[in-house]
Amino acid sequence: MKPVKSMSAEEVAAWVCQALQDAGVVVTLTGGACVSIWSEGKYASHDLDFVEEGPVPRHQVRKVLKQLGFKEKRRHFLHPHTEFFVEFPTGPLMVGNQRVEKVAERKISTGSLRLLSPTDCIKDRLAAFYHWNDLQSLEQALMVARAQKFELADVRRWSKAESKYAAFRKFERLLKTSPKKRKAS
Predict the structure, then answer these.
(1) What's the pTM value of the predicted model, to 2 decimals?
(2) How far is the CA of 91 from the CAs of 29, 142, 150, in angstroms?
C-alpha cells in the first residue's frame, strides 16, 4: 500500500471505509468528499464525512481508526500524515427528507468505498441550496451534474417532494446553459 501522505481523498476514504467494513461497521461517504470524487477533482474537500449504518458504538469506530493511525480530536479523527480528516455525522443516510436506499461502490487500490451515487450527491448538495439558499452547494451540484451521468427525472421528482420545484428549475436552467454538461436522463 502506498504511504498515507501520498493518498488522495478517495484513497484515504476507501482505506477507512474498508477497515471499518472489515470490523463489521458499514459506512457511506457523503458530503464534499463525494462532490470532489464525482466532479473529478473540480471541487476539493478535506473532510471525509461517513454516515454509519445502524447504531455503532463510538469505541468500535475509535479502535479501528486508531489502528490506522488516526487520533480523535473532539468530533474529528486526524492522521499525522494526511490533510484529510474523518468525521461521522449523525445518520440515518438521507438526502433532504428522503432516505438513501442504494449507494455507489468504487473499488480502488486502498479498498472498497461506499459513497452516495452521483444522483444522490446532487440531491445532497441541492438540499443545502433549497433549504439554506447555499449558492456554493448549488455550484457543487452543477459540478457533479456536468461531470457525471445522473438521473435528472429522479432529482426532479425528489425536488417536488421537497416542495422546491421552483429552485430545481433554477438548477435545471443553469445545467442547460452549461457547455460542459453530459447527457442526463
Answers:
(1) 0.93
(2) 12, 25, 24
